[in-house]
Amino acid sequence: PDLTVARERGIPLFHRAEFLKELIGDGELIAVAGTAGKTTTTGLLGWIFERLGMDPTVYNGAAVLNWKSDTHLGNVRKGSGNLWIIEADESDRSFLNFHPRHSIITNISKDHYDLEELNSMFDQFEHQTAGITLRGETDRASDLDIRTPMIGRHNLENAQCAALLCRELDLDMDHVRRAIQQFKGIERRLEVAGQVNGITVIDDYAHNPAKISAALAAVSDTCSHVHAFWRPHGFTSLHQTMDELADAFATHWTAKGGSILILPVFYAGGRVERKATSEDLVERLNSAGVPASYVPDYGILKQELESRATKGDAILGMGARDPQLPLFAKQLVTEWKISRP
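Predicted structure:
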């Protein structure tokens, strides 16, 4: 309705990234892009710069837990100067609207587009960067002695990316390391929803093979067994990455056991070509000897998890777009083995 009225009244319409570019104007921009890790890296950079007194304006894809409160969303921070730190998104090519002063490309893997097209886009993004571009070069961070309270090898790599840029910018590395150790993480990035009966319930935004693999690996290192559930966020993306998804889940099962439960594809309406379904993924896994299960709704998912998880285990919920996912994780903690009438 808002868009309809705007068109009727001749009010200009902007894509989010286009409008953000207008807000930034001639400010100094640090942009973080990449298939995975860009939200955490952006939030951490913003937090580091704040702690070092540089007062940046930060625009991020999810809330920084250090900033989130009842009165603050946590994914944006208004600074007083012209320094901007933003997450730049490749999923709709909108990151190509920006011409940063400095940039980070965390990594590149198949998601939204094939690898050849992705590499071409990220090459263009680097070409549009006037100064430093870091491409996930964490092998250069071995002497930085970076430690982070966030679990997972991938989060250490995110922190190393942020620290490397700070070193390139000649910031005080003792203060940088101290800020990293104080960073609480990002909402829905391996966020602990709570514990019940000795079981840790974790909520994560993982929606592509690389992120799912990283989340599973991180949680597997902390518990006896992982009972993972995932909701695909789109029929097309599920179809495009079916092989990689099957490999990601199969590798986890081979390494750790536990459970793999797949919910139906999240559908928000509109015209869509259903090239693949959750049942197809489960069938692919079963044919490879991986005992994954299809669960048609959250009620049955709750029953399955309650029958499988025991003390010392972790429950890891993953997926994007569906707003029920984080709510369900919290519900598991507060309503464990409580049946609804």
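Summary: The longest strand covers residues 28-33.
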